[in-house]
Amino acid sequence: MKSFITLPTAQDFFDRYAHLIHTLNRTTPLTQIISAATEIGVIYSAIFTAVNQVLPDIATGAAITCAVLGTALLEMGLRVLFPYGWRAILYRRFKGLDLLMTVAIWAALIMFVGASGVLSFTGGKQAVIDNIPPPELATTAEAEELAEKDRTTALATFTADSAAITTRYAAQIDATGASYTAQIDAAKGKVQYYRQREAITGNSYASARAKEAQRANELESEKAQAIAQLRTAEAEEIRAASQARTTALASITGHLEEARAEVTTGNKTTEEEHLAKTNGIGLGVGWFTLICLAYFALVTLLYEAMKKGSGIEDRPQVDHYHFAPGIMAEATGALSERWNYWTRNTIQRFADATPPAPLPANMKSLYDLSGIRADVVQLEAITTDQGGNVLRIPRKADARLLGTDSTNTVVIRSDELEEKALELIGAGITLEAQNYHGAAEPFFLQAKDVLKMYLGPDHKAEDFTELYNGCIGFLNGNGNNPFEHHHRRKPIGFSKQSASDPGTGTGQENAQANGDRYNGDRYTAETNGADPRQRQCKHCGQSFTYKHWNKQYCSDKCRLDYHATQHGGQRFEPAEYRKGKKRRK
């Protein structure tokens, strides 16, 4: 399972320790490599010794496999358990199920740390004993040749020491120069950084730049001084080596006889020293592995403390596959479905071939609920001018605006009309502010229709203009809500016209028949001044009475002609469009 860490919330705390902790945390794999190298040797030796007595043919392979798996288990377990163990303490997870998890984590952590420590300590000592060669013992027969060899050795030692001194100091000089060069480059880099900050922010960092430049100059001086000291020390060591050579050559002749008598004693002393040295190095390596383990634990604690102090949290990144059934379960389900499909189809074919039963004497009614469907909202992705995609959710008619009473009259609540008008005008203003004028126009047109419904059929044009402008001013933050002065209205209601008596109903006495509003395929403009539903055709400019707030053309012919003018004379053919749409499906 993947995981990620959140950004720090306490930036000051994070800035103080981020570089230190990040650097230390990058060294923890080295400590685990050292521990693993000692652990794997001990596990290999133990497994090989045990298996070799029973199955010598597979002893090597079994020992290697167990050593690798055991070491991986220990090191991976420590790398996972240490952070969770420190978090349990830092976040005080000592209640409820957190307490159970904390106890289990620390129990496993203690076992892993103990096993890793014992194996690393033992493996470190054993590795030293196995790899240090035995001492070379002198013999009495070679005592006569020892003097000549000592002379040759003294001369060779001086030559080697001189070369080693020169090489060692050359390396130190290079390392010192590289260290100071890196510091100087860092100081110069900060100077460049402050220049960039000045260019970006416009602030002055002259003092900071001067400070870093001064620091770079001081580092240059320190670099030269350090190199000079190293060269002086090199000359002193070469002189001391030369004096040691002269002294050694003079003493070789005098100690020739003494060397013969001391061969036996020297060999014994050499063996004792070798044993003591081996034990000392082994013990040191063992303690070093324990120090590496403690260092790993300490760095992990510091890292978790920095994350807590900085407000950084570990968040798991899960997906569907973490909660979905396993692969075997999916395969079993697929096979089961295929088996059910085949068997049930066979049964169904057999059942279809069976003659139907005779009709019952009294058939009961059945109710088919399959035709009942929930409303489906079709989402549409629209490409913007900037190249991005916007998800368009179609607006559904607000069913709360309309309701029926017992007298079969449609009643519209004025407070909901106010809310609807302000909502539409606000949407139009928002789109206008983003230069989407074409998209804003339908909202303004619909808002005007709602305001006309709110004012009623007998409203005055100046009242409508005042209310419309007042809504715009109110939404722009200029003025109060204009509807506060228009609560004198009553809800608007229109009784439905009876099919048997066309004269019934309110507000329909002067309405023209639908057939009188057409002239061929074009609407005939109504001249009734009281009817506010007048609009100019977008193509021919002729006035017409619209039946829907979004209608822009007086006839279908004008709509198709306007489409052709906008597309290079290519007329829109609905039948061809529907055919192409079916082909795309």
Can you tell me about this structure?
- The longest helix has 59 residues, at 143-201.
- The model is unreliable at 397-411 and 488-530 (pLDDT under 50).
- The chain folds into two domains: 2-320, no CATH class; 380-495 and 515-584, no CATH class.
- Helix content is 64%, strand content 6%.
- The protein has 585 residues and is mainly α.
- The strands form five sheets. It has a three-stranded antiparallel beta sheet with strand order 5-6-7.
- The chain has helices at 11-52, 59-90, 96-131, 143-201, 206-254, 256-310, 327-352, 414-433, 437-455, 461-475, 556-566, 574-584, and strands at residues 2-5, 314-317, 380-383, 389-392, 402-404, 409-412, 492-495, 518-519, 522-523, 534-536, 543-545.
- α1 (11-52) packs across α3 and α8 (414-433) runs antiparallel to α9.
- The protein is elongated, with a radius of gyration of 47 Å.
- β5 and β6 (409-412) form a beta hairpin.
List descriptors.
two-stranded antiparallel ribbon, 12 helices, 585 residues, mainly alpha, 3-stranded antiparallel β-sheet
List the helices and strands and how they pair.
Layout: E1 2-5, H1 11-52, H2 59-90, H3 96-131, H4 143-201, H5 206-254, H6 256-310, E2 314-317, H7 327-352, E3 380-383, E4 389-392, E5 402-404, E6 409-412, H8 414-433, H9 437-455, H10 461-475, E7 492-495, E8 518-519, E9 522-523, E10 534-536, E11 543-545, H11 556-566, H12 574-584
Antiparallel strand pairs: 1-2, 3-4, 5-6, 6-7, 8-9, 10-11
